[in-house]
Write a structure and sequence with these properties.
Blueprint: E1 3-6, E2 25-28, H1 34-47, E3 56-57, H2 60-63, E4 73-74, H3 75-88, H4 90-96, H5 99-108, H6 113-139, H7 141-145, H8 155-174, H9 180-191, H10 209-224, H11 255-258
């Protein structure tokens, strides 16, 4: 829930006078600041879908209950991967969460239509990240389920797939191919030529593994990259049909204006 934080008045101003060009109160929300967006998106990925069930250890304070059993990675690691992806996909971030929209929402308050549009943009960004990781799970199904003999859930694998995810999310937004099956096509083409079995990379030094995997993944992506423009997606993401389970999208976030 957004909360109000009071902005101190400048020295010398009457107590009942608002500071010049500043509201007396502003809204604090994790989507308003780039530094706190990764946590918000990570929580959406874990709570809005069961894709990562059994993969990420979620603390009781986050989930409301203790979840037993061995997990592939910690919540802090997962949040770090999301943050890494977000930093590498700034254009996609600016499409979903334009600075001008956020500035307007800060001024208009938590119950405004503009604030609602910011939350819609956050949900859209989380949905794009979810599309990517679901495509990874579908394409590399053995590696997704086996974190002992495969590299996907290894720190080097997560770093490589996080970097790849930034590029793919950005490319899919740029080409308007943002439905799930387009992400699936991309990852399936990569999986056809890249093995994630640890035994297939035994000769690679640990300090070189992330770069080694990223080169393999991006090379496979480049070799199979299809031409853009195969979809009839409108110029604005607000009119894209995401299905009945999707949150409504803002009609004012224009992909073309952010590219």
């Amino acid at each position: 829930m957004p909360r109000l934080i009071e902005i101190p008045f400048p020295d010398g101003e009457p107590i009942d006078a608002p500071p010049p060009h500043e509201p007396a109160f502003r809204i604090e929300h994790p989507l308003y600041e780039p530094e706190t967006r990764a946590e918000w998106i990570a929580e959406r990925l874990l709570t809005d879908d069961d894709l990562f069930a059994g993969k990420v250890h979620v603390p009781a304070k986050k989930s409301g209950k203790s979840i037993g059993g061995a997990k592939a990675i910690t919540y802090a690691t997962f949040r770090g991967v999301v943050d890494h992806m977000l930093r590498g996909a700034r254009r996609a971030e600016s499409v979903c969460l334009p600075d001008a929209l956020i500035a307007e929402a800060v001024l208009e308050g938590p119950n405004s239509l503009t604030h609602h549009k910011v939350e819609q943009g956050g949900h859209l960004l989380a949905r794009l990240f979810l599309h990517y990781w679901r495509a990874v799970a579908n394409a590399f199904d053995e590696a997704w389920d086996d974190h002992h003999d495969h590299l996907l859930w290894h720190p080097h694998g997560l770093a490589a797939f996080g970097s790849l995810g930034s590029r793919i999310v950005q490319d899919q937004v740029d080409s308007y191919d943002i439905r799930q099956h387009y992400f699936d096509e991309v990852l399936q083409s990569i999986a056809a030529s890249v093995s994630l079995k640890k035994s297939d990379h035994a000769d690679v030094a640990a300090h070189d593994m992330t770069d080694h995997l990223l080169v393999l993944l991006t090379s496979a992506r480049a070799a199979s990259r299809r031409t853009a423009g195969l979809t009839a997606v409108p110029r604005t993401i607000g009119s894209i049909d995401w299905g009945s389970s999707a949150a409504p999208l803002s009609p004012d976030v224009d992909i073309a204006s952010a590219s």
